Amino acid sequence: MRILFTGGSGKAGRHATAYLRDQGHSITNLDWVASDVPGITTLKVDLTDAGQVFNACQAYATFDELEPGTGMPRYDAIVHFAAIPAILHRPDNETYRINTLSTYHILDAGTRLGIPKVIIASSETTYGICFADGEKLPDYLPVDEEHPTVPQDSYAMSKVVNEVTARSFQARSGIDIYALRINNVIEPHEYRQSFPAYMANPALRRRNIFAYIDARDLGQMVDCCLKTDGLGYQVFNVANEDLSVGLTNAQVIERFYPGVPVQRTMGEYETFYSIDKARRLVGFKPRHSWRAELEK
Q1: Which residues does residue 28 pair with via DSSP β-bridges, in sequence order?
Q2: Any residues with CB less than 8 A from the CB of 234 and at least 6 apart, and which?
Q3: What's the rounded Cα separation, in Å, for the pair 57 and 74?
């Protein structure tokens, strides 16, 4: 597929674009800075500028595309990862403005130009736990896509707004638009760098609902969504299958979630960030576990 990928130079985007490249897709990266991933073409674009977005969504990506003489090829899909990645990077109003406006422009251009699929990066923060003022417990466990999304912070607010915007564009256009509520992205080198501290102090993972997503498995999830057509508007949690701490499921509940309702029987080390929907609808099968990585 010919894919337009925004934010491909970022932490998650670098690994996702590399994975998609390895599956044979052709990737054009829209970002402020060039990607250092081999084989990925970058077009520097300000996504808050509607004119730049519309132009980039209907442009040649490489000189090779001029050779057939058959006109400008159309993109098969847009994957929109570009964003201010969290609170405290920019003033709150700027984080909200940039994230919502850029997503609106991508969805507007994609649907008007007839691109049949758009995948947007949403976030675990939409559930209101990650950046809450003080401790916020989930309403129930495991946290699935039906859990309320009432965050307090500008970043998560922007992601909730983006999901609503995506749903409205899908209703108007009828194309497939999938929103990925991505958990804390972990790069391969971060297992040895960070996870020993999580073993020593599991409370460090409370705001992430004790979950994580390997950056390579995130790429696999995007590819699963690209290969699955006809679902209309969907929201998916994206995480790995296991907890990000050395405790059992029961031990985490006893220590951190006393009194929180548990909706179903869970596995001994199963994530509290449910990925049942992603498994069922797009065939997502995470392959990387911190346990295996630390044993290398």
Answers
A1: 4, 41
A2: 176, 177, 178, 179, 277, 281
A3: 8
Tokens of 202: 């599991």
- DSSP state at residue 74: P
Per-residue confidence (pLDDT) for residue 222, from 0 to 100: 98
**β-strand partners of 78:** 4, 118
Give the Cβ contact number of residue 261 at 10 Å: 9
DSSP 73: P
**Cβ burial, residue 42 (10 Å; 0-12/13-18/19+):** buried
pTM of the model: 0.97
Q: What pLDDT is attached to residue 296?
A: 79
The encoded tokens of residue 165 equal 């915007």
Residue type, 127: Y
Handedness of CA 276, 278, 280, 283 (dihedral sign): negative
- Tokens standing for 283? 């065939």
CB neighbour class for 97 (10 Å; exposed up to 12, middle 13-18, buried from 19): middle
Q: Please state, in angstroms and rounded to a whole number, the distance separating the CA atoms of residues 165 and 101.
A: 10
The β-bridge relationship of strands 41-44 and 77-80 is unpaired
Q: Could you tell me which residues are beta bridge partners of residue 7? A: none
Looking at beta carbons, which pairs linking 291-296 to residues 24 or more positions away fall under 8 Å?
291/242, 293/188, 293/191, 293/192, 293/195, 294/191, 294/192, 294/195
Return d(Cα 205, Cα 193) in angstroms, integer.
15
Domains of the chain, CATH where assigned: 2-189+212-243+272-288 (3.40.50.720)
Both tokens of 24, joined, read 């044979």
- The alpha carbon of 1 is separated from its chain's Cα centroid by a whole number of angstroms, namely 19
Residue 246 is classified by DSSP as S
Write out residues in the chain with pLDDT < 50, as ranges. none
The Cα angle at residue 163 between residues 159 and 169, in degrees rounded to 5: 140
- Predicted confidence at residue 146, as pLDDT, reads 98
